[in-house]
Design goal:
Keywords (chains A, B): DNA-binding
Number of domains of chain A: 2
Protein name (chains A, B): TetR family transcriptional regulator
Oligomer: homodimer
GO molecular function (chains A, B): DNA-binding transcription factor activity; transcription cis-regulatory region binding
Pfam family, one (chains A, B): TetR_N
Strand content of chain A: under 5%
Order of helices and strands of chain A: HHHHHHHHH
Distance between the termini of chain A: 37 Å
Shape of chain A: elongated
Chain lengths: ~210, ~210
DNA sequence: TACAAACATGAGTAACCCTCATATTTGCAA
DNA sequence: TTGCAAATATGAGGGTTACTCATGTTTGTA
């Protein structure tokens, strides 16, 4: 996966590059800007990230920064979008091959573990998804991402339980997924040991919901 | 150049009045400030709320505002604290009298409904708890509140299932409660109809976890 | 009545996001 | 190669906002 372009984004004033970099030179510079932002977020959080600092660390002027990102949130949004794109492929692959209840249990359990480990290890991801409630564009992105992932899950459920009401299955899948994200956010904001317990409890709860109907 | 003698508050830099109003006059003024802030949050959200506007609407100077609140977040925090104090009493009362599984199901179901209606009706509450992820002090308050409420729930569970592992029950209660708050936030950010479905699904899921172990 | 502590004020400060006029570089057609 | 428009680069400065502080006023009380 390269290129990515990220030309425009859905509806309204969702953050998007003000101008897509078309030359090699500027594409590299945009990469440097994103890398600088990522590093700063890891160090101090996106709230404390200063645009001037991003520019300085990327070795560009403040004006260049705004040439490609309409505002501060757009940078965070761009980073978030990369995470969702990557993880969706991973999730889709993990769930696509599921054929029976046991397989679902296995795959889901592994996904939860992977996500938890990712949240623990990636300060940038953690920071970005923490700000999800406050920022409208981020919230939209997270909702869309969650919906997409929940649909993968719902597809499996429909396969396993063809007699069940499809809408109910979709609701369950969406809820279970969102609860998972909430559980992760909770788990990483408490002591490690309690976090582990909470994730384990979530997993049990979710699996029961998914498997026993 | 930092505040030397701030009265301080529980651990860390949790927001608190810089100086407690001791005179009748100032107590009234603080009330007016909070009322003004509440109205502005309801109108435009706490992010768009301007300190100057709060002062103007409360009929006080900007300096007076900062006499009692160390910063902007402290005002939001003070409002949030009122909500938690009020609701904790309500929740405690609802759960205290529960004697059997059926009673728990009844009480919990009612609590969920009340909370959902509250979230739908109260823009201030909605706004404040939305910002919970971004603001550290608010997050602490919400966590503490959630822990307290979860303890009421855990106490009931321990009464109903004295043989079960207490720590597991506490974990379950805390998780279920946090999932509930997440479900509410989710529900109010989608179409009303889908929100209703999600809340209903959460209720089913939570009740199963609470009642069936 | 005196006086210290509490309270009130608002012009001023600092920090930050973002703009824009201007300069430079690139791609490409003639 | 040369000319030129589009793309890219720059950073001083505009505008907004949270917050401070020196100064003045009110209140409780000895």
């Amino acid at each position: 996966m390269e290129d990515t372009a990220t030309p425009v984004s859905p509806q309204e004033q969702i953050a998007s590059p003000r101008r897509a970099p078309s030359q090699q030179r500027s594409r590299e510079r945009v990469e440097r800007m994103l890398a600088a932002a990522s590093a700063l977020i890891a160090e101090q959080g996106s709230d404390a990230m200063r645009m001037g600092e991003v520019a300085e660390r990327a070795g560009v002027s403040i004006g260049s920064l705004y040439q490609f990102f309409p505002d501060k949130r757009a940078i965070v949004w761009a980073l978030a979008e990369r995470y969702t794109t990557e993880s969706q492929a991973c999730i889709s692959a993990a769930l696509a091959g599921v054929g029976d209840a046991e397989g679902l249990g296995q795959a889901f359990s592994e996904l939860v573990d992977i996500y938890y480990r990712l949240f623990l290890a990636e300060p940038v991801m953690r920071d970005i998804w923490s700000g999800t409630q406050a920022d409208k564009a981020l919230r939209q992105l997270e909702l869309a991402d969650s919906r997409a992932n929940a649909e993968f899950l719902a597809a499996v459920l429909k396969r396993l339980r063809p007699a069940a009401d499809p809408v109910a299955l979709e609701t369950t899948a969406f809820l279970v997924w969102q609860m998972g994200e909430a559980a992760m956010r909770l788990a990483i904001s408490v002591e490690r040991q309690e976090g582990d317990r909470l994730v384990a409890a979530y997993k049990r709860m979710a699996l029961r919901e998914l498997l026993d109907g």
